Amino acid sequence: MKILVLRFSSIGDIVLTTPVIRAMHEQLPGAEVHVATKGAFADLLRYNPHVHRVHELGDDLGALVASLRAERFDHVVDLHHNLRTARVKRALGLPAHSFPKRNVEKWLLVNFGVNKLPLEHIVDRYLTAAAPLGVRNDNKGLELFVPSERAVPLSVLPGTHREGYTAMAVGAAHGTKRLPGRRLVELAHLVRGPLVIVGGAEDRPVGRRIADAIGARAYDATGRYDLLGSASLLAGARSVIAHDSGAMHMACAFNRPVVSIWGSTVPAFGMGPYQPEHAANVHISEVEGLSCRPCSKIGHDRCPKGHFHCMELQDLKRIAALVTP
Fold it and tell me: What angle do CA 196, 201, 202 make, to 5 degrees?
């Protein structure tokens, strides 16, 4: 059976598809699993031994459809379930299944504080799209494969960091999912031992601010490495501090102890840290009891209320105490 998985973006969402990909490959005899995703995220699956081929989406959806049509797939598993994947499925005309997005339930929670969401993780929701093929959750968790030549060598780290460090992933897609820079500096002061600050080019200002504040104890890796290089720094950490972000899910894929910090979004959406075989590794920090939270299912650029209590009231001492020294 030749199966096409659709998931175009983004980092965390793609990492969260890996249990489905593995289960199909291992549970369906002779299954050949292909994945279509945006070119910017292809490396997340390129080295996965359960993926036969990654098909990259560029600016032209039609070109992708043409290349997919030539593959002669037997089935489509849609783990994105949006207008573009609907166009792909319609063009291919193959048997296809998608997952329930629970958008109505999320809307009720955001706008009226009414929680009708089932207690299910997005991984289990994704797996419903593969269930008609006879696939079930193996509970082995997430996966991310980084070949040695793409990893950041330990030799680039200061000598003080080579025996172990805490990774602080400072980024997130939206402003209300990130601790303000001032609070990140406070947290960095509270975390014991060597610290590696992980993030993209857009996180350089806050990375430099933290490094300047705590000195040689910090190695600022923001903007220095590509996606897999940054992932390798998470893989090598003793413990990871991350927001509700792709970095959180990558850390879980490496079974690292994770402290995840939540602001405008909530784990109840089903996107919390996922480590079914290592549940003791996972800690969540959120300010409970705020009537304004969640204010969005994905986040805002800034707090709609102006006070940003969901991050300003975070217990930084508790977060630091949860970090594996």
Answer: 105
Tell me whether residue 147 is in a domain: no
Q: Give the domain range for residue 57.
A: 2-133
- pLDDT band at 324; cut points 50, 70, 90: confident
Per the CB < 8 A criterion, the answer to whether 167 and 241 are in contact is: yes
Q: Kindly give the residue spans of alpha helices, DSSP state H, lying in 72-142.
A: 83-92, 103-112, 122-127
Residue partners of 240: CB distance under 8 A and separation at least 6: 166, 167, 168, 169, 234, 247, 248, 251, 256, 257, 258, 259
The reply to whether 172 and 294 lie within a common domain is: yes
Q: Please, which pLDDT band fits residue 86 given cuts at 50, 70 and 90?
A: very high
User: Residues 252-281: pLDDT tens digits?
Assistant: 999 999 999 999 999 999 999 999 999 899
* End position of a domain, from candidates 105, 133, 161: 133
For 206, the token pair is 């806050």
Residue 141 in domain: no
At residue 238, does pLDDT exceed 80?
Answer: yes
> Whole-angstrom Cα distance, residue 36 to residue 56?
6
pTM of the prediction? 0.96
Q: Are residues 28 and 157 in the same domain?
A: no
Beta strand ranges found along the chain (DSSP E): 2-6, 32-38, 53-57, 75-78, 96-98, 166-169, 195-198, 218-220, 239-243, 258-262, 282-286
Q: Is residue 223 part of a domain?
A: yes
